[in-house]
Design goal:
With 501 residues, the protein is mainly β. It has helices spanning 2-19, 21-33, and strands at residues 38-50, 52-54, 63-75, 78-87, 100-105, 108-109, 112-122, 129-140, 145-155, 173-184, 188-200, 217-230, 233-245, 272-284, 290-298, 314-325, 330-340, 353-366, 369-376, 399-414, 420-435, 438-439, 445-459, 464-479, 482-497. The longest helix has 18 residues, at 2-19.
Length: 501
């Protein structure tokens, strides 16, 4: 599969540059004649956090630092943005505060964009959805056509750390690649996607793998189709099929059909499962408001390795209304519907049917004050299995299903020059606790968070702009076993230099 992606890379790149070579050199000549050869911009951000926690054992260092930097280069019309991000690591709960160093760049020229290093791409919410990878990618949008491809490392191999409280990282290195072909005109939009990923087992140290870790293999196919029926009516649809092998070390599936092999793209094993996800809807825009009626179904067990997590065994029938008031000064967006799970009747008494809804209100009270409030009771994600860490006695991974979530955000502009802002953010969440797929009747938890932030921007001459931010965060989590309170300030500095590209 990776050789196929490599050949596609070369073919697409050759075709793309061949088609635009005349315009390419013409633009370069114009830039040289004008003496406009090189433009450089950049920015750097440093953030330092201190937190204090009570009620439980400290799970993260009291002091944390993060650094982000970006560089934008315009070389005679070729855009070359580059970025880097660095953070220090945690200790026991290393999944909460991992150490990392990301470096990547995405040069582009007209409708050609290349990706190299640590990047992310999205094909579909059911296939490849914003997952970070270290490798190479390309995006081409010539006229009405779209072509995108990527290949790289999705996850690095991680050795077992017996001192960690809950180890969520896999010992296997995961490689993956994807390809998307699309066409779009004024009324029609079609995209065909394929994504493939596999855990590498060669040269794997047996001591680094516990009894619950299994190397996986996945191929996802996706198709989306949108059609504008009239000026006020649009049809939307999306379908995906995921073939997932949960253990590559299991024997191959005998007498597999062409369909099970996905016509030569996949080699199924006895641990392979095939699942579908799809949604379709009608968007109606009569003028004063927008209405979207949508149906979505995700099979039990559906999962793609092109996403960090995935919600499955769910069916939603919803309608959404968006209503601007007074030329957009006020916005109202509501979504209501029905949701059910246990689609194949395999969960016993754990299935549910319930009303779901969300409401978002926003208001621009004055030129410098705006507010937004959001409420929802949509179901969130779940974990697939508990993690067993050798030498450490722990409970299962806790799965949380959000029932009610309320969020209020206010922004205040200080002065008339737009250089100073104060932002407040308040969140309340009521949730149920699930252990090993069983809802705990006495496991309700309540989460309350408050954040106040101050932002000041200023300039140093014509080409230098800087920003200072400071914030205070406090949150309280009321659990059946006790109360957890966290409080911590943060301060950051960001600076940009160079003219805008």
């Amino acid at each position: 599969m990776r050789h196929l992606f490599f050949i596609i890379f070369l073919s697409i790149s050759h075709l793309s540059f061949a088609q635009s070579v005349d315009g390419f050199f013409s633009d370069i000549r114009n830039r040289i004649e004008q003496g406009d050869i090189l433009r450089i911009t950049g920015q750097a951000t440093g953030q330092f956090d201190y937190n204090s926690i009570s009620g439980i054992v400290q799970r993260r260092p009291g002091f944390n630092a993060r650094l982000q930097a970006g560089l934008g280069i315009d070389l005679m019309g070729i855009q070359i943005p580059a970025s880097i991000a660095i953070a220090r690591g945690g200790t026991v709960y290393n999944y909460q505060l991992p150490s990392y160093a990301f470096v990547g760049l995405s040069p582009s020229y007209k409708w050609i964009t290349l990706h190299a290093g640590d990047r992310s791409m999205s094909f579909s919410p059911y296939v490849l959805n914003g997952l970070s990878y270290r490798g190479a990618g390309i995006e081409l949008t010539p006229g009405k056509w779209r072509l995108a491809a990527m290949y790289g490392r999705l996850r690095r191999a991680t050795a077992i750390n017996a001192g960690s409280i809950q180890r969520l990282e896999s010992p296997y290195q995961r490689m993956g690649g994807g390809l998307q072909l699309g066409y779009q005109d004024e009324k029609t939009k079609v995209k065909l996607s394929i994504f493939s990923a596999a855990d590498r087992t060669e040269n794997q140290d047996p001591l680094s793998v516990d009894s619950l870790d299994r190397p996986e293999r996945n191929v996802c196919l996706g198709l989306s189709f949108n059609q504008q029926i009239s000026d006020k009516l649009i049809f939307q649809s999306e379908w995906a099929l995921s073939a997932l092998t949960r253990d590559q070390q299991q024997p191959a599936l005998e007498n597999a059909t062409s369909l099970q092999r996905l016509f030569g793209l996949f080699n199924p094993r006895i641990s392979t499962g095939y699942h579908q996800a799809y949604q379709f809807g009608i968007q109606f825009n009569p003028g004063p408001f927008d209405l979207l009626v949508q149906f979505e179904r995700i099979d039990p067990g559906y999962r793609t390795l092109g996403s960090l997590y995935f919600q499955n065994d769910i069916e939603n029938i919803t309608s959404q209304v968006s209503l601007p008031i007074e030329e957009g000064k006020y916005q109202v967006q509501g979504r209501v519907g029905l949701q059910r799970n246990n689609l194949n009747q395999s969960s016993g008494q754990n299935g549910f049917k319930r009303f779901i809804g969300s409401l978002a209100l926003s208001a621009q009270w004055t030129a410098g004050i705006n507010s937004q409030i959001n409420w929802s009771n949509f179901r969130t994600t779940n974990r697939i299995r508990a993690i067993n860490v050798p030498f450490v006695e722990i409970d299962s991974i806790v799965i949380v299903q959000s029932n009610n979530n309320i969020n209020l955000v206010n922004t205040f502009q200080l002065g008339k020059n737009g250089r100073q802002f104060i932002t407040s953010n308040f969140t309340f969440q009521d949730a149920q606790t699930i252990r090993n797929d069983d809802i705990q009747g006495d496991g309700n938890s309540q989460f309350l968070m408050a954040l106040i932030a101050y932002n000041l921007s200023f300039t140093h001459g014509e080409d230098r702009r800087s920003n200072i931010s400071a914030s205070i965060l406090a949150h309280q989590n009321q659990l059946p076993t006790g109360k957890v309170i966290l409080f911590g300030p943060s301060i950051g500095y960001q600076t940009k230099w160079g003219k805008e590209l």
